[in-house]
Amino acid sequence: MEEESDVGKGRTALAIMGAVALAAGLAACGEKKEDSNSAAPNPSASVKQVTKDDALAGKVPAKIKEDGKISIGVDSTYPPNEFLDTDGKTVVGFDVDLFNAVATKLGLKTEWTTSAFDDIIPGVQSGKYEAGVSSFTINDDRKKNSLMVSYFSAGTQWVTVKGNPNKINPDDACGKSIAVQTGTVQETEDLPKKQKACKDAGKPEIKVAPYQKQSEATAAVASGKHDAMLADSPVCVDAVRATSGKLELLGKVYDSAPYGYVLNKDQKEFAEAIQGALKALIADGTYTEILKKWNVQDGALSGTPGINP
């Protein structure tokens, strides 16, 4: 979920929105196979048991090691990456499974706290959370004040109503109503560039419709309230699958970038421990198993995890 670090009509529409909500209860490069990958995640799939690595665990900060758990800020509205399970409380998703495995490798338990998306990084910086795990794209702005450990790669994808009745073109959305999640780079970096291009060409401005939750943006597009949306590629693929063909992917995935776990700037040794845990999970196949479980394997890192890469 690409965020700046500073700091739903009628019975048919309700049915579509219900499908989105249900999917959120059960379940984001360059051009990749994600464009045609519509298989459903398999949350019940099992993966190999992870064991503690004493050497890596030794790098965990004393304060975290003392209570044996790590507090994590997460925006739980972004399936299949992170979202609430059917109980409405438990956070699940590929991000959750993978970081839980990282924590286990470090001898820690995890404590997931749902937060507004754009409050997570400030929460890490203030000490409210010990880590931010919520599909954060690594960019130069974030790296100024945080340490980020790369673990996945995703790009931006557009989604519209099946058949694209309003003839949306991601490269020329001037005058169209476009939904986006607040605080994402899609809102703060991508759309402003497209907006400027519209202005420079003397065309009507894009009608940007920001939503606090990605699930709300997806439901609004599915209901026909907006012409299209843009978000991280795995999320868009899952939204199309979840609405049973009511939506479709539009154009190609672009602006590939790695996701990163967010830590405080002074937690270099902890970042190295997390990096080491990721390397171990990749080496023993656990990493691939988790990504395949959630059908996001096309975003697997092509290299090794890095710190502020």
Structure overview:
The chain folds into two domains: 54-154 and 257-299, Periplasmic binding protein-like II (D-Maltodextrin-Binding Protein, domain 2), CATH 3.40.190; 155-256, Periplasmic binding protein-like II (D-Maltodextrin-Binding Protein, domain 2, 3-Layer(aba) Sandwich). Strands 9-8-10-7-11 form a five-stranded mixed beta sheet, with helices on both faces. It has helices spanning 10-26, 54-57, 62-67, 94-105, 120-126, 140-143, 185-200, 214-222, 233-242, 268-283, 286-293, and strands at 69-74, 77-78, 82-84, 91-92, 109-114, 131-132, 146-161, 177-181, 207-211, 228-232, 247-264. With 309 residues, it is of the alpha/beta class. Strand 2 and strand 3 form a beta hairpin. The chain is globular, with a radius of gyration of 19 Å. The protein contains eleven helices and eleven strands. Residues 3-37 have low confidence and may be disordered. Helix 1 (10-26) packs antiparallel against helix 8 (214-222), helix 4 packs across helix 10 and helix 4 packs antiparallel against helix 11 (286-293).
